Amino acid sequence: MKDIVFCSNNCFVLYSAALQAKNSENKESLPSLPQSPMKERPPKAFHQYSNNISTLDVHCLPQLQEKVSPPSSPPIMFPPAFEAAKVEAKPDELKVTVKLKPRLKAIHGSLDDCRPPSKKWKGMKWKKWSIQIVIPKGSFKPPCEEEIDEFLKKLGTTLKPDPVPKDYRKCCFCHEEGDGLTDGPARLLNLDLDLWVHLNCALWSTEVYETQAGALINVELALRRGLQMKCMFCHKMGATSGCHRLRCTNIYHFTCAIKAQCMFFKDKTMLCPMHKPKGTHEQELSYFAVFRRVYVQRDEVRQIASIVQRGERDHTFRVGSLIFHAVGQLLPQQMQAFHSSKALFPVGYEASRLYWSMRYANRRCRYLCSIEEKDGLPLFVIKVVEQGHEDLVLTDTTPK
Fold first, then answer.
1. What is the 8-class DSSP label of residue 283?
2. Where is the PHD-type domain (predicted)?
């Protein structure tokens, strides 16, 4: 089975026919490789070596398939800011801001150093990804002010002042308490001591007229007449606004005339529902708000005299910054010493005044002034009442 060839240089070539047959079988069993566009290799030839080395046939060894590495996990890709803005956010989502930190530089010689360098943007450190909340349209009813006040009271996070005391002042004409609506009875005006009247109740009375300075004349005369007249709408006394139609005896309170749908005119006249024209009128007045200065003309000297003459008073009399508590009195034997060329000094006189404090700047305190008698001469006493301090009493024989 072996062929031996002797050469001239005492070398031999051993050729095995069995080995050749085995190699031919391996060639047939190998899968056919794709043909490359390269030029075909020339047929293999037997090479002979003369340096005491046997001449062997060199054959093409089978190519082994490379081991496929498992696929790497795909990198996380964040959408750019302009694409995230286009995404419609859900109503329940919260606003999230994601900051992408820059990747740390790879250490020289590490495994990450073999990665291809990525393109870097100059001046950009991170990207912001913001999602806005969109509230869907629905039947949402915002809470009213009362519900918000109740909620804040339960939390105890607010400081509210004490409630304003109720206004018990009553109008002498319509008998309603407190100030009225601006487009209605309007504010209360003082008529006399503890006597009040609504502005429009007095202004729309038949006898009352207004001067250029804003004074209302004959209000007391209208009050005396109203105490004997009964309203056609509410059947109560105090009605002063009558119908201007000749021989019409219908008379109303101002508020009752509005409720009865009487017609008011710009020349301060009124017609009852029986005599008012049908439809609208050019001179009809539908707005009753009064923003100008209006007051009741009265005799203040007479009012002060009536207050002084009353023995026991339930009301406080105030002039400017002085509040009078007691006027006092003078006996015949005191007349000579308890007066001067400009003033009287009645014993028992008492008044109070709020004025600047003697201890603190920008703070007020109460000064209680009174006149007493000592050794047949007047003694003037000032009592300083200030919170946080004991009362300070100052006395002297002269008011200065």
1. T
2. 168-276
**pLDDT tens digit string along 312-329?**
556 677 777 888 888 888
**Which residues have a Cβ under 8 Å from the Cβ of 34 and sit 6 or more positions away?**
none
In terms of C-beta density within 10 A (0-12 exposed, 13-18 middle, 19 or more buried), how is residue 113 classed?
Answer: exposed
> Who's near 276: CB < 8 A, 6+ residues apart?
262, 263
Mean pLDDT of 81-100: 52
The rounded distance, in Å, linking the Cα atoms of 13 and 5 is 6
Three-state secondary structure call for residue 308: helix
**Residue 8 pLDDT class (50, 70, 90 cuts):** very low
State the pTM of this model: 0.48
CATH tag, 313-396: 3.30.160.360
| Virtual torsion, Cα 89, 94, 97, 100, nearest 10 deg | -80
Look at residues 348, 342, 174 and name the one whose alpha carbon lies nearest to residue 251: 174
Domain with CATH 3.30.160.360 in the chain: 313-396
Q: What is the pLDDT of residue 334?
A: 86
Identify the CATH class of 188-296: alpha beta
Q: Cα(first)–Cα(last) distance of the chain, in Å?
A: 158
- DSSP track, 330-382: --GGGTTTSB-SS-B--BT-EEEEEEE-SSSTT-EEEEEEEEEEETTEEEEEE
